[in-house]
Amino acid sequence: VTDSAAIVGLGFSDIGRRYGKSASEHAVAAVIDAVADAGLSLSDLDGLLVNPGLRYDIGPALQRSLGLRDLRLLLQLQAYGSTAATMVAMASRAVLTGEATAVACVFADTPLVPGERSGAVYDNPESRLKPGIAGLAVAEGIVGANVHYALAARRHMSHFGTTSEQFAAIAVSARKWSRMNPMAQFREPITIEEHQASRWIVEPLHLLDCCIVSNGGIAVIVSRADVARSLRQPAVHVLGWGQGHPGYTDLGDSEFGLVTGARSSGAAAMRMAEVTPADINIRELYDCYTYTVVITLEDYGFCGKGEGGPLAASGALEPGGALPTNTGGGQLAAYYMWGMTPLSEAIIQVRGQGGHRQVWPNDIVLVSGNGGMLDHHSTLILGTHERS
Amino acid sequence: MGGCSTTIRPLSWGRMSGADRHSPDESITVADLLPLESDVASEPFFAATAHGKLLLRRCSAHGHWNQPAALVCERCWDAELGWAEASGLGSVEACAVVHRRGGDGSDYSYTVAIVLLKEGPWLRGRLRPGRDSAPRRGTAVRIAYQRVTGGETLPIFVVADQDSTDS
């Protein structure tokens, strides 16, 4: 490897509780925005990686929606919330080997339907009830991510003494950051007490432990670092990547809820980037639930196993804290675009474009993706400078 | 308890009568279970639940117990799995209380759990709790069997010390 890969463009569609546009329209808008952000044109793209949401509304046909000709790399990828970082890793490999020179990576989904609950698409039993033993848990009411993550969180609590008040500290911190993010859907501050008083979704998870749901799309453009120098935006160098898929068993010694793929994924990414947890200036962690942040902090080695709750309660993750984390408010407060939420905020921070929420120094930023029921994990290490 | 078969063979429940000791007990019911259809692979499993028995998968290589949907042994990757009857006893590994709003606008809640079965595998499902809606890790449970109109009989968990119906 004689050169390094860089993220050169970042684009958003109109994200939030927005109705009337299809996922394809959001994806097209995001890619066009990302290309313009980079100072490129659509005709410069020779690669397209597509991550659909749960509705699988976008795929390889997005090429034609964008009018892209003669692509050399085109795939639909799916490992849920871990896909975004993995798309960047795949695009980085492609530009480094010469397989492609400018690759767009895009996620778009429209789970919100007018008049329906936010989580309806995620926990509708009729759409998830498969015949046979595969449908057993759903038939008995274990349907949707909220239930599975509640069970995982309960296991962490009973093993390590993690508390709901410690989860609350994550939610409070997210709002302290989102207050400074003009794109955030929820910017009002909250207190620990308000978290505790918020209604139960699935005990032990309160409403304020759960992410928001958004319609929209986000795209990034990956190219080579030497190409990035002549483009519009400060280069965001891709220094390391990794994946971790634990393959939890349904046996008594399963680590479900206790250890995630972040352990192996983070170790691989940090080894590749030649950094340690102490070198990371900013953490953008997948925060579908407050609990997910707690366990991810542990598995990346920012604290010991079982110490994620006390670490969060210490205030270290907040603005001004020792370990600034989820600096845009994350999925809990800003917007829910699967793995694109932490990735987009990381790009903003590495570029130094965070406005009032910008964190300095910003040399090394860690991004996590998490998919399924903690089944899939991916990590990126991004930085202001190429690896020397 | 039911015998823990150590021989690995397909079991046929079609010939059994409905008068087994663990036959579905109408006094143990939870609301809102959805009617679940069987498929070809799950026919033995649901034939057994209809008779108050829980079947798990066991590998032919070592007799490792696996969850009922396993296709490959999660211990040794043996792909030859047979059905074997489990004790139907276990303990709470983790539980959660689901809060929902019904079609009529009223709020309701129910408890679900990951249960560590005595044989070793986990099973996820509905828990009929006792006094505590979220019983602690380690709380003893047993399987009960609930008929669901329009679907197969489903195994649910009952907190053992609350269980006055067990013989």
Structural class of chain B: mainly beta
Could you spell the SSE succession of chain B in H and E letters?
A: HEEEEEEEE
- Unreliable spans of chain A are none
Summing up helix and strand content along with how strands pair, one would put the structural category of chain A as alpha/beta
Question: What percent of residues of chain A are in strands?
Answer: 15-25%
Largest sheet of chain A: 9 strands, mixed
Q: Note the quaternary state here.
A: heterodimer
Q: Would you report the number of β strands of chain A?
A: 11
The total count of helices of chain A amounts to 15
Cα distance spanning the termini of chain B: 11 Å
Question: Could you tell me the number of beta strands of chain B?
Answer: 8
Question: What would you call the shape of chain A?
Answer: globular
Radius of gyration of chain B: 16 Å
Biggest protein-protein interface?
A: A-B, 35 and 47 residues
* Spatial strand sequence of the major β-sheet of chain A: 3-2-4-7-1-8-11-10-9
General description of the model:
The complex is a heterodimer of chains A (388) and B (167). Chain A has 388 residues and is an alpha/beta fold. In chain A, 34% of the residues lie in helices and 18% in strands. A nine-stranded mixed β-sheet of chain A has the order 3-2-4-7-1-8-11-10-9. In chain A, strands 5-6 form a two-stranded antiparallel ribbon. In chain A, helix 11 (262-273) packs across helix 12 (290-300). Chain B has one helix and eight strands. Chain B has one helix spanning 43-49; strands spanning 55-59, 65-66, 81-85, 89-101, 107-117, 122-128, 140-146, 154-159. In chain B, strands 4-5-6-8-7 form a five-stranded mixed beta barrel. Chain B has a three-stranded antiparallel β-sheet with strand order 2-1-3. Residues 1-28 and 163-167 of chain B have low confidence and may be disordered. Classes of the chains: A alpha/beta (388), B mainly beta (167). Chain A binds chain B through residues 125, 129, 131-142, 146-147, 150-152, 154-155, 158, 199-205, 249-252, 254, 257, and chain B through 32-39, 41-42, 45, 66-70, 74-75, 93-99, 109-110, 112-114, 116, 120-126, 133-134, 136-137, 148, 151, 154-156. Strand 5 of chain A pairs antiparallel with strand 4 of chain B, so a sheet runs across the interface.
